[in-house]
Amino acid sequence: MTAPEPLMRMRLRVEQDIFTVRQLGREVARAVGMESQDQTRMATALSEVGRVLLAQGPHADVTFTAELYGVPSLQVTMAHSAGGGAARLAEQLQQVGRLVDMMEVDDGGPGTTVRMVRRLPLGAPVLTPTRMDEIRARLARHVPGSPLDELAVQNQQLIAALDEVRAQRDDLARLNAELEETNRGVMALYHQLSDELEETNRGVVALYAELDEKSVQLRAASEAKSRFLANVSHELRAPVTAIIGLGRLLVDSSSDELTEDQARQVELIRTSATDLLTLVNGLLDLAKAEAGRFEPNWTEVDLKAMFGQLRGTLRPLATRPEVEFVVEEPAVPALRSDEVLLAQVLRNLLTNALKFTEFGSVRLGVRRSGAEVEFVVADTGTGIPPELHERIFEEFYQVPGSKPISGKGTGLGLPYARRLAGILGGGLRVESVPGEGSRFTLQLPAEPS
Ligand code: ADP
Fold this sequence. Notes:
Elements: E1 8-12, H1 16-31, H2 36-56, E2 60-67, E3 73-80, H3 86-92, E4 102-106, E5 112-119, H4 129-141, H5 147-251, H6 260-290, E6 299-302, H7 303-314, E7 323-327, E8 334-337, H8 339-355, E9 360-369, E10 372-379, H9 413-423, E11 427-433, E12 437-445
Parallel strand pairs: 7-9
Antiparallel strand pairs: 1-2, 2-3, 3-5, 4-5, 6-8, 9-10, 10-12, 11-12
Bound molecules: adenosine-5'-diphosphate.
Adenosine-5'-diphosphate binds near residues 353, 379, 381, 382 and 392.
C-alpha cells in the first residue's frame, strides 16, 4: 500500500514560522475531526518541537498526513536538516511527547526526524480519499494569521483552560464534602455494628459458659447413672443366682417329691430368675462399658480361629433347617484388636440375626475397605423399619411387635455392642428393610492408633 498523500507541508525557517506551524497544527487537527482540547494539544506539541528544532539549525520540514486504513490518526513529521542529535533531542522533548499518543525521534535519512501520532476520536467523521481532498483544498485556502492573532487565540485558550480548572476545583470541593459526609455515615454505621457485635459476643460467651456448665452436669449425671446401674446390678446378681440355685435344689431328685403344681411354680421361679440374671448381667456390662472400665487388650487377632469358634458356639442356636447359618472364611486373615470384645460384638449380632430370621440365611463375613475392616452380619429376617434404625441402639428399646423366634431379649444387646465398637475405635451401623432382612456392619480401623 502506498503512503497517503500528505495533507499539508511547510518549512520552518524563522521564529515567526513557529506561530504558523502552531496555527496550522490546530487547523489540520480540526479538519480531521479532533476535539478542541486535542487541537490545542497538537498545536502546542508542534510549536514546541518547532521551537527546539529551529534553535538547532537553519530549517525543518513539516509534513501532515492522516492514516486512513489502520487506526485513524493524524501524523506529523518534522525533519531537521542537521542529523546526529536524536538522543539528546528525544530527552529534550520528553515532556512534549506526553501531548501526543506516540513520538519517535530518529537519526535515519538525511537528518533528524521527529514523528508524532495522535489518534482521532471514535466519533470523528470517517476519512476517505475524497474527504482528504476536501481537507487539502480547505487547508490550502487557509491564510496563516499574524503572531498577534495567534497570541489572542492562545489567550482565549488559556482563559478556557483556566475556567475548566476552576470548574474542576469546584467539582472537587463538592466531591470532598460529599465524601466527608459519606465517611461520617460509614463511621456511625461502623460504631453501631461494632457495638452490636460486642453485645452478640458477650451473649455467645455467656452461652458457651452455660453450655460448659451443662455438659459438666450432664457428664456427672451420666456417671452417676452408670455407677448406680453397676452397683444395683452387682448387688442383685448374688441373690438372683441364689434363687436359681435354690430352685434347682427344690426340683432335684434327691429332694422331697413336689406336687405337679409346686414343680410348675418352682420352674416358673427358675426361668424368671434366669431372665432376671440375664438382664442384670447385661446392665452390668453396659454400665462397665459406659464408665470406661474396659481397657482393650490390643493383640493380633487371628480371624480364622475366631470365626471357627463363633461357628462352633453358635451352631447349637441355628437349629432351624429353614435357616442356613454361614460363617464365611475370613477375607482378612488377622486384625489388631481386642479378641474378647470383638467376639462379644459379633456373637451379639449373630444371636440377634438368628433370633429374628425365620427362613433364608444368616451370614457373617469380613472384608477390607480402605483403611478399615468391615465385619458384616446379614440376615433375611423380619427387618427393621427405617425410622427405628437408630432407636434400636437405645437401652431397652425393642421394635414394637417384633417377637424373637426363640429366646427372649432385654433390649440391651445393641447399645452394648455399639459401646464396644466405640471402645475398639470403630462404629456399628445398620441397614434394613422390613420383610427383607437386616445387615449390621461393624467397622474397625485396620491399624488402631
Ligand atoms: P434384644 O435383647 O431385644 O435383642 P437388642 O438391643 O439386641 O436387644 O436389639 C434391640 C431390638 O432390635 C430387638 O428387640 C429387635 O426388635 C431389633 N433387632 C435387633 N437385631 C435384629 C435383626 N437382626 N433383625 C430384626 N430385628 C432386630
